[in-house]
Design brief:
With 632 residues, the protein is mainly alpha-helical. It has 18 helices and six strands. The strands form two sheets. A four-stranded mixed β-sheet has the order 1-2-3-4. A two-stranded antiparallel ribbon has the order 5-6. The longest helix is centred in the last third of the chain and has 66 residues. 24% of the residues are buried.
Length: 632
């Protein structure tokens, strides 16, 4: 192999022949390992080249290989040793490993661990209270140094082995045999100090964890008692409307959201503290329980205040909702009362009164609900605990209390005004009902009077067959007139009542304008017809009375019977009565009306004529008595 070919590798001096010889006069091959990772392929090439340089005579005396591992890790040294066993020629008789690096590292590590452990044993309170710093950590990993030591000791204990089948004999040097107790002593010291160091680290880790928990607990407590409580102190109002209460609720939800983040930290800290308490370290139990109690007290107190505030705002929202509904009901009732009504009849008035009563009842229910909500809200405010940690909230509460009481009093006054107006409207409606009733009854009186007039003209026709019957008819007629007079008076009284009611209601009657003229007109017609009926009956009584005197045999008064003037008078009255039956009743408006039908009048006239014939026959008998004798 030409040197020029591997010159870049050789320049790295991965291995070299120093020119020295061992006790057997064999050449010494040195492999200086460095901090950087050694390329095993390049090292193998270098060894092949170097071992090919000596003569066969030198090779026969064998080689001693020195592996300098002071600047390298033990695993690299071990890899090189294994490679030498598999790669170098049989002439290599001895491999020496320089392990000064382990001795130096282990001694330095022992000093550092002793310093750390002794400082911890002295119980320096200031040291315990300060947080973990890099100055108090060992410069190398104790686990790595211990592993390196164990591997080195194992290697030293197994360095002698005899190769059968013509193999190479590897023999440890005297220094290597002396190094084994030193390595064992260092390992024992390292294990002892490392065990103490682990306990120190555990204690320090626990103290660090405790300090971190304490710091986080104080952060939570300081925020809840500081900015968190200040936020709640600033939110004391309940709003004066639904919109205002909703805005306050939204603001409170934002505050709750901020508190939720700190409550999540509280839950995490509580779990960590519970885990430490379960570990059972007596010296930390009192401090941990104190932290846990302080954290829980503050968080539960703040959570209670948040819940109270939320319930208060919800109650205020419900109160303002009921107040708004009640206000709308009162506005609707007031609007209904302010509109003048003109009902068409009593039924519509009754319906309007029923609607008013229903609305007033609904207002009563709403006001009762408002009082209940308001009282519940006042009770909550009165039970409010001061979240200002001693700050008096009476002034803020007084404003809320005044607002609630003011709303309830205002609604009570508005309801009272509406009740007064409902009473007035109810009275007016009842008067209108009475007015309509009077108008209807007055119209009915007119109808009744018209029916009496019609009955008078159509059925009161007969004049009687004799004086007694005619007198009975006259008496019945007077009673009939009394009934008509009562009906007329009743109608007049009703119409007078409508006038009074219209004046009270400041309105005009719908029917009094035509009902009164109709009543007077019908009464006038009835009066005229009645007077005519009376005249006819009186004439009929006079006719029948005189006729009966003539027709009866009265021997004690012959002179009276023989008086011609009586016959003439009877005849004249009868003719006048017959003439009057043919004359119609003439009303003031010029209209005419006859009593009964023509057949009825003819029948009555026929009765009168028959009576007149009897009177004339009597007259003839008195004048010519012989005619009566002859006829008989």
């Amino acid at each position: 192999m030409e040197a020029s070919v591997i010159l870049p590798i050789l320049k790295k001096k991965l291995a070299f022949l120093s020119g020295g010889k061992d006790r057997r006069s064999g050449l010494i091959l040195t492999i200086p390992l460095c901090l950087e990772q050694t390329n095993m392929d390049e090292l193998s090439v270098t060894l092949d080249y170097l071992l090919s340089i000596p003569s066969e005579k030198c090779k026969a005396r064998g080689f001693t290989v020195i592996v300098d591992g002071r600047k390298s890790q033990w695993n690299v040294v071990k890899t090189v040793v294994v490679m030498l066993q598999n790669v170098v020629p049989a002439e290599v008789s001895l491999v020496c490993v320089v392990f000064e690096k382990f001795t130096k590292e282990s001694t330095s590590l022992l000093d550092e661990l002793a310093l750390i452990n002794n400082g911890s044993d002295k119980g320096n309170q200031q040291e315990k209270e300060r947080s973990v710093d890099l100055n108090f950590l060992p410069s190398v990993d104790p686990e790595t140094v211990l592993q390196t030591g164990h591997e080195l000791l194992s290697e030293l204990q197994q360095r002698r082995f005899n190769g059968s089948d013509g193999g190479v004999s590897w023999s440890p040097m005297d220094d290597e045999l002396l190094a084994q107790p030193q390595v064992m002593k260092l390992l024992d010291s390292l294990r002892e100090q490392y065990t103490r160091y682990q306990e120190v680290c555990r204690q320090r880790s626990k103290r660090t964890q405790l300090e971190e928990i304490q710091q986080k607990v104080m952060q939570v407590v300081n925020w809840l008692e500081g900015p968190g409580s200040e936020q709640l102190r600033a939110q004391w109002g309940i709003g004066d409307s639904i919109r205002a209460s909703q805005a306050l609720q939204q603001k409170h939800e934002e505050i709750e959201s901020q508190h939720s983040e700190w409550f999540a930290v509280y839950v995490e800290l509580n779990q960590q503290i519970a885990a430490l308490l379960n570990a059972g370290d007596e010296e930390d139990l009192v401090e941990l329980k104190s932290l846990q109690q302080q954290l829980s007290d503050v968080c539960y107190r703040q959570a209670s205040q948040l819940e109270f505030r939320q319930n208060l705002l919800q109650a205020a929202l419900e109160f303002h909702g009921v107040a708004q509904d009640l206000s709308q009901q009162l506005d609707g009732l007031l609007g209904m009362l302010c509109v003048d009504v003109a009902p068409a009849d009593g039924a519509s008035i009754q319906q309007t009164l029923k609607l008013l009563e229903e609305k007033l009842k609904s207002v009563d229910v709403g006001l009762q609900g408002l009082r209940e909500k308001g009282q519940g809200l006042l009770d909550q405010i009165s039970n409010q605990a001061s979240w200002a940690y001693g700050k008096d909230v009476t002034i803020e509460n007084k404003e809320n209390v005044d607002h609630i009481q003011g709303v309830m009093e205002d609604m009570q006054l508005r309801k009272q005004r509406c009740e007064d107006m409902v009473d007035v409207r109810r009275l007016k409606m009842l008067q209108m009902v009475q007015l309509f009733k009077c108008e209807e009854d007055a119209a009915q009186a007119v109808e009744w009077l018209s029916e009496l007039l019609d009955a008078l003209l159509k059925t009161h026709i007969r004049l009687g067959d004799d004086a007694q019957e005619t007198k009975v008819l006259l008496e019945k007629h007077r009673k009939f007139v009394d009934v008509a007079q009562s009906t007329y008076d009743y109608g007049r009284q009703l119409l007078q009542a409508t006038v009074v009611l219209c004046q009270s209601l400041r309105c005009t009657s719908r029917s009094s304008g035509d009902t009164l003229p109709r009543l007077n007109r019908v009464w006038k017609q009835f009066t005229i017809a009645s007077e005519e009926r009376v005249h006819r009956l009186e004439m009929a009584i006079a006719f029948h009375s005189n006729a009966e005197k003539i027709l009866q045999d009265c021997p004690e008064e012959p002179e009276a019977i023989n008086d011609e003037e009586q016959f003439d008078e009877i005849e004249a009255v009868g003719k006048s009565l017959l003439d009057r039956l043919t004359v119609p009743v003439v009303y003031p408006d010029g209209t005419e009306q006859y009593f009964g039908s023509p057949s009825d009048m003819a029948s009555t006239a026929e009765n009168i004529r028959d009576r007149m014939k009897l009177v004339n026959l009597k007259r003839q008998q008195l004048r010519h008595p012989e005619m009566v004798t002859t006829e008989s």
